[in-house]
Automatic annotation (TrEMBL):
Domain HTH lysR-type: 4-61
Keywords: DNA-binding, Transcription, Transcription regulation
InterPro entries (alphabetical): LysR_HTH_N, LysR_subst-bd, WH-like_DNA-bd_sf, WH_DNA-bd_sf
Keyword Transcription regulation part of the UniProt annotation: yes
Keyword Nucleus belongs to the record: no
Gene3D superfamilies, per the entry: Periplasmic binding protein-like II (3.40.190.10), Winged helix-like DNA-binding domain superfamily/Winged helix DNA-binding domain (1.10.10.10)
UniProt family annotation: Belongs to the LysR transcriptional regulatory family.
Name of the protein this chain belongs to: LysR family transcriptional regulator
Pfam families: HTH_1, LysR_substrate
Signal peptide positions on this chain: none
């Protein structure tokens, strides 16, 4: 029977994900020569070529991809074993590390943690604020147990390494200066704002979400100013420097002055989709499952408020 070495398979998977031996070595705290040696030994154990030269780099062979396709099932099962063992050993106690994008922390994660403190006081939730794409990098690296992020920046739902849980469709409202001619216009649509100067980030998820929403309405937004923080964006809107799409999670608890009007785009309401993700199999662990349940409850509560 073929000898399967889990540690070497993990090195091969990391090489596939990171792309180079050097990056793989850095991720696994190994030397490049040690990575190469382990993969050479794995190829001998399996009796197939796993790597082939591609210029100054290496690429995985078809055999390597076949091996990893089956190995993903093993990795997921090991995650389930870890989760069950953790539940057996810890019972109601345990620690769950969560990476969450900024606006989701007060809107979803804090209410979830409050509920968990009452229902499961022995459960320790450790929060790490991270941008949407970074949350998945932390999850892949094993630095967190759960990533709270945006569907637009999540791995494919068909990626066997992750389990995704949809949480919330967060509406995007448009922020206008209070004295804007369209501030109280009935039936406001995104297309009515095509000629306006827009404020959004120069790159990253919010730039892409704003651009995609406007393009779906039939125009490309003119970016007048670039900012990533909602305090800065709303301050510029209030000053009449432009307009912006703002997620309702970010604006619901805004306590600024009266210089900004938030308009609901009911005719063509754009949304961003919030999801939670864990490594495949880990969702069956009792601690992670409790956190996911609390996040679902917080999301359901927010959707109820939005509908009223």
């Amino acid at each position: 029977m073929t000898e399967w070495d889990i540690k070497k398979l993990q090195i091969l998977r990391t090489l596939r994900d990171r792309g180079t031996v050097t990056a793989t070595a850095e991720a696994l705290l190994m030397t490049p020569s040690a990575v190469s040696q382990q993969l050479t030994n794995l190829a001998k154990q399996l009796g197939v070529r796993l790597l082939e030269a591609q210029g100054r780099r290496v690429r995985l062979t078809d055999a390597a991809h076949l091996v990893l396709r089956h190995a993903e099932v093993v990795f997921a099962q090991l995650e389930r074993a870890d989760a069950e063992l953790d539940g057996y050993l810890r019972g109601e106690a345990g620690q769950v590390r969560v990476a969450a994008f900024p606006t989701s922390v007060p809107a979803l994660l804090v209410p979830a943690v409050r509920q968990l403190r009452t229902a499961h006081p022995g459960l320790d939730v450790r929060v790490r604020e991270a941008e949407a794409a970074e949350a998945y990098e932390l999850l892949t690296a094993g630095e967190v147990d759960l990533a709270l992020s945006l569907a637009a920046h999540a791995p494919s739902a068909r990626d066997p390494k992750y389990s995704r849980v949809p949480l919330l469709a967060d509406p995007l409202d448009v922020a206008l200066p209070a004295d804007h001619p369209l501030a109280d216009a009935p039936g406001l649509r995104l297309a009515d704002l095509a000629a306006e100067p827009w404020i959004f980030g120069g790159s990253g998820p919010w730039s892409e979400i704003t651009t995609a929403a406007c393009e779906a309405a039939g125009f490309v937004p003119e970016q007048a100013h670039s900012a990533s923080g909602w305090t800065a964006i709303l301050a510029m809107v209030e000053a009449g420097m432009g307009i912006a799409l703002v997620p309702r999670m970010a604006s619901a608890d805004r306590r600024s002055g009266t210089g900004v009007v938030m308009r609901v785009l009911s005719a063509d309401q754009p949304r961003r989709h919030v999801v939670a993700a864990v490594r495949s199999g880990a969702e069956e662990g009792p601690a992670v499952a409790r956190v996911l349940a609390a996040l679902r409850q917080a999301a359901a509560g927010r959707e109820t408020v939005q509908q009223n």
